[in-house]
Design brief:
This protein has about 260 residues and is mainly alpha-helical. The chain contains 10 helices and no strands. The longest helix has 30 residues. It is globular.
Length: about 260
């Protein structure tokens, strides 16, 4: 069952137990929340620094996962990690703009766009990579791409009808929802394969990021404080779900 409560509780218990035995990484993840709490309470201009930090630790998670995955899938995970790093870099530029009044707007937007498009490109290559491993029947990969694209498009249209946005924001929303549906669909197809655990981790991370995006849409262009708290905390939590891959020692998959 995809969303089994017992299975989720078991994974959370395992992650907490692993944290107790990996103090360095536990401190690294905990510092992220200290930084966020300091920024949200006392120094809002530094809030993007906590998001950037979360993105960078998620990069470690993606590359850690990739090291234990079949080689055709590694490329997609490496690409997701690179994309997340680019988004983190954009957040760093946002800090420089807010705190030091540096004119980084055009470069920051370019990094956001590049990161989003990079994530989409590599994630949408995942079904084809899995099909090359012969874990799908021929033709399933195409449906595994088109279905999430359609679902993401519908969600983006509903969001746009609720709160019309400029084209870049609509594109970010489309990519966020599409990637969530993409990984959720892969998880449902891979229910009896070890690869499912890595895909499930990314899916939960993207689910939290999608919720953050929904809260951001509700908040609009001048969001109240609760929207800022909700968006940033959910984003950080989503990144840390991915980063938790660095805590575990999954089995090595055979290459093909």
């Amino acid at each position: 069952m995809l969303f089994s409560g017992a299975r989720v509780r078991a994974k959370l218990s395992l992650m907490l137990a692993t944290l107790r035995h990996n103090h360095g990484w536990a401190l690294a993840l905990g510092f992220n929340w200290v930084l966020w709490l300091w920024a949200i309470s006392l120094q809002p201009p530094w809030l993007s620094a906590s998001i950037a930090y979360a993105n960078f630790v998620a990069v470690v998670g993606y590359f850690r996962m990739a090291a234990h995955l079949p080689s055709p899938v590694q490329r997609a995970m490496h690409g997701m990690g690179i994309a997340t790093g680019l988004l983190g870099g954009a957040e760093v530029l946002l800090v420089l703009q807010h705190v030091f009044a540096l004119p980084t707007g055009w470069l920051q937007e370019s990094l956001f766009m590049t990161g989003a498009l990079t994530a989409a490109f590599y994630a949408l290559s995942l079904p084809g990579a899995i099909e090359r491993l012969r874990l799908y029947h021929p033709g399933v990969a195409r449906r595994a791409v088109l279905g999430p694209l359609l679902a993401g498009g519908v969600c983006t249209l509903v969001a746009w009808l609720f709160r019309p946005y400029f084209t870049p924001v609509a594109l970010y929303t489309l990519i966020t929802f599409t990637l969530f549906f993409l990984f959720a669909y892969q998880v449902s197809l891979m229910s009896r394969h070890r690869l499912r655990e890595s895909l499930l981790r990314v899916m939960w991370g993207l689910a939290l990021v999608s919720l953050a995006r929904i809260i951001g849409i509700i908040g609009g262009f001048d969001p109240p404080p609760w929207v800022t708290v909700g968006f940033t905390s959910l984003w950080i939590a989503g990144m840390q779900v991915v980063a938790s891959a660095a805590l575990e020692r999954p089995p090595v998959y055979p290459s093909r």
